[in-house]
């Protein structure tokens, strides 16, 4: 019964393969699985031949045969191992191995007088190794070389040269058969090595394919999970792959399924419009643009990205298309833009209302003074002694004919000079009082005219950038609150460091200052602090590129949890507040390329608002923060 050797255990096989791989250079170890099988076979065959020839050398020395040919062969096969450890390709060690194996067989026949070498087992190993390592042509060459030299050349050499060939002794017969058996074992070992290397490469290939399939499944799952259409086309426009979103959109748009291998249907006008993009993508570039589609009667705006599809050599063989429906985003952007415009209108109106409130407040205070002056004038006129002067004139008219007698004998005439003196003094006092009240009345009217004129000047210059002197503009904002500050007993301190003119929108900046002063006024009004102070200062920033305007009060202060929400629309801590003032001021500061911040130690400790503005005019509208 024929028995077959069992394959080596996997652990031993792995150990053998690791030892063989250690004899390969780094570049050879990085080869493909199929190439790695050949590389391991070269190393395995060289190792076997080194051991085989070393054993043959020892046996030859003990039997009196010349050991030099087998020793030289061992050195050559060791050189093959040295080449595989240093060479970047397998061709040099393979060529050396096949050449050495052929020459050793030929030398054994002609020099070693081995007449039956062509029938030796190792001779049959040479063509097998040659075919596997270098292909059919090289294997045929090695086979023909051995046939010509060993099967034809050596018999002719024996017939014509008639060398003295000693008859084989029983010892030599056993010697030859023993090494033939070793050669057969070596053939089996090389074959087993091939199978082991092939199985290892096959396992590596299967693991690679499994990893590729897993990666493909992950990629497919990823593409199928997205709602964005994704597809790929070859250079002729034929569909290669498409996810479900792309197929569904194609079905909704054109009423038919997208079929792989068929042209991806597109309207002629759109295909013509896309032609330049596709040409650039086929040239290796990437393209991104927006395109509008009509799907089931609805307009959908898509963000299209085209990328080159390359093969393993990097050649462009098609394109990939990624599309994203940005219709909701554009609609949201449009709504956001509309909300921003509405908010800006509201902020403008609120700012105008804030300024108008300040104007009306100051005008109202001035009108109160005008009313008081008018009432005093009317009371003075109503209580005037002008009527006494009329009665005195009437008395004189009655005594025109007897004035001397009237002034010398009539008791009333005797008192008339004293009456006139007293009346003149009283009329002079009334005149001075009326002049003072009329002067106060005129000043009040002039103040009202200046307030209205200033408001008209700012309203007419809204939106226009101009060179503004900051101290003068702050003083104008303070004048709008002057009467209320005086009524509330608020002491205002100014600290203006020299700064250059700023190119700003005067109206927006005045709007911010009026809001900040109004906010400080309310904080001071609500504070139990008796010494109400408000300080406003101007100073350059440490970087020298910005100017800082600080409005500081010792009012009610701000709690830490409210500081982060202070500039949020609708947020207010006032009972009658609307939550627009500081939010509008922050927006206006952003439009001026500046920033509005606030700092407060805590409730009851006041607050400081800081407005930062650039000294150099920046192009374009400022960001809204």
Overview of this structure, please?
The protein has 625 residues and is α+β, with helices and mostly antiparallel strands. It folds into 4 domains: 200 residues, no CATH class; 100 residues, 2-Layer Sandwich (Beta-Lactamase); 125 residues, no CATH class; 153 residues, 2-Layer Sandwich (Heat Shock Protein 90). The chain is built from 19 helices and 12 strands. The strands form 3 sheets. It has a 5-stranded antiparallel β-sheet with strand order 2-1-5-4-3. A 5-stranded mixed β-sheet has the order 7-9-10-12-11. The longest helix has 56 residues. The chain is rod-shaped. It starts with 9 loop residues before the first helix and ends in an 11-residue tail after the last strand. The N terminus and C terminus are likely disordered.
Q: How many strands, what sense, and barrel or not for the largest sheet?
A: 5 strands, antiparallel
> How many individual β-strands?
12
User: Taking all residues together, what is the mean pLDDT?
Assistant: 76
**What share of the residues does DSSP label as strand, in percent?**
5-15%
Helix segment tally: 19
Structural class: alpha+beta
Main sheet: strand order: 2-1-5-4-3
Give the count of structural domains: 4
Helix content: 55-70%
Low-pLDDT residue intervals, each spanning 5 or more residues:
1-9, 171-175, 620-625
Globally, the shape reads rod-shaped
Secondary-structure blueprint of this entry?
Elements: H1 10-22, H2 26-29, H3 33-63, H4 68-86, H5 91-110, H6 121-134, H7 136-161, H8 170-225, E1 230-234, E2 239-242, H9 244-254, H10 268-282, E3 287-295, E4 298-310, E5 316-325, H11 327-382, H12 386-398, H13 403-409, H14 411-460, E6 465-468, H15 470-480, H16 482-488, E7 491-496, E8 502-505, H17 506-525, E9 533-540, E10 546-553, H18 560-563, H19 581-591, E11 595-599, E12 607-614
Helix pairs in contact: 3-4, 3-8, 4-5, 5-6, 5-7, 6-7, 11-14, 11-17, 11-19, 12-14, 13-14, 15-17, 17-19
């Amino acid at each position: 019964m024929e028995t077959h050797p069992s394959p080596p255990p996997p652990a031993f096989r792995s150990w053998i393969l690791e030892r063989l791989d250690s004899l390969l250079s780094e570049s050879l170890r990085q080869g493909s699985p199929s190439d790695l099988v050949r590389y391991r076979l070269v190393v395995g065959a060289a190792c076997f031949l080194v051991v085989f020839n070393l054993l043959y050398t020892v046996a030859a020395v003990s039997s009196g045969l010349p050991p030099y040919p087998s020793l030289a062969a061992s050195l050559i096969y060791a050189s093959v191992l040295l080449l595989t450890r240093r060479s970047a390709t397998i061709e040099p060690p393979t060529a050396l191995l096949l050449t050495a194996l052929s020459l050793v067989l030929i030398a054994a026949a002609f020099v070693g007088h081995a007449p039956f070498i062509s029938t030796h087992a190792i001779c049959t190993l040479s063509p097998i190794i040659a075919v596997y390592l270098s292909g059919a042509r090289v294997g045929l060459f090695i086979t023909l070389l051995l046939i010509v030299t060993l099967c034809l050349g050596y018999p002719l050499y024996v017939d014509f040269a008639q060398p003295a060939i000693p008859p084989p002794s029983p010892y030599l017969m056993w010697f030859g058969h023993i090494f033939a058996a070793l050669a057969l074992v070596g053939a089996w070992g090389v074959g087993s090595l091939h199978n082991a290397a092939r199985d290892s490469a096959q396992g590596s290939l299967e693991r690679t394919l499994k990893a590729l399939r897993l990666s493909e499944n992950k990629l497919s799952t990823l593409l199928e999970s997205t709602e964005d259409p994704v597809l790929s086309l070859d250079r002729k426009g034929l569909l290669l792959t498409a996810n479900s979103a792309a197929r569904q959109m194609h079905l909704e748009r054109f009423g038919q399924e997208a079929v792989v291998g068929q042209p991806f249907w597109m309207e002629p006008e759109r295909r013509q419009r896309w032609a330049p993009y596709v040409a650039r993508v086929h040239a290796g570039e990437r393209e991104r643009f927006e395109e509008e589609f009509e799907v089931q009667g609805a307009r959908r705006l898509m963000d299209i990205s085209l990328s080159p599809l390359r093969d393993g050599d990097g050649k462009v063989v098609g394109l990939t298309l990624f599309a994203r429906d940005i219709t909701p985003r554009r609609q949201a952007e449009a709504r956001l833009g509309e909300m921003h415009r509405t908010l800006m209108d509201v902020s403008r109106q609120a700012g105008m209302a804030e300024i108008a409130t300040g104007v009306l407040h100051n005008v109202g205070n001035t009108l109160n003074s005008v009313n008081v002056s008018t009432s005093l004038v009317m009371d003075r006129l109503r209580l005037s002694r002008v009527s006494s002067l009329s009665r005195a004139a009437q008395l004189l008219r009655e005594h025109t004919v007897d004035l001397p007698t009237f002034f010398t004998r009539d008791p009333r005439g005797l008192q008339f000079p004293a009456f006139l003196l007293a009346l003149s003094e009283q009329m002079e006092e009334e005149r001075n009082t009326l002049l003072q009240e009329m002067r106060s009345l005129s000043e009040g009217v002039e103040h009202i005219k200046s307030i209205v004129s200033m408001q008209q000047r700012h309203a007419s210059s809204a939106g226009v950038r101009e060179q503004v002197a900051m101290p003068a503009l702050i003083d104008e904002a303070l004048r709008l609150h002057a009467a209320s500050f005086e009524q509330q007993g608020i002491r205002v301190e100014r600290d203006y460091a020299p700064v250059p003119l700023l190119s700003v929108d005067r109206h927006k900046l005045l709007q911010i200052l009026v809001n900040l002063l109004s906010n400080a006024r309310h904080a001071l009004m609500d504070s139990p602090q008796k010494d109400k102070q408000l300080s406003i200062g101007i100073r350059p920033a440490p970087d020298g590129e910005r100017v800082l305007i600080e409005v500081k009060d010792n009012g009610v202060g701000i709690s830490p949890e409210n500081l982060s929400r202070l500039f949020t629309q609708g947020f207010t801590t006032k009972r009658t507040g609307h939550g627009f003032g500081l939010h509008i001021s922050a927006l206006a500061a952003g439009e001026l390329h500046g920033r509005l911040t606030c700092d407060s130690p805590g409730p009851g400790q006041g607050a400081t608002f800081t407005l930062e503005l650039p000294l150099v005019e920046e192009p374009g509208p400022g960001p809204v923060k």
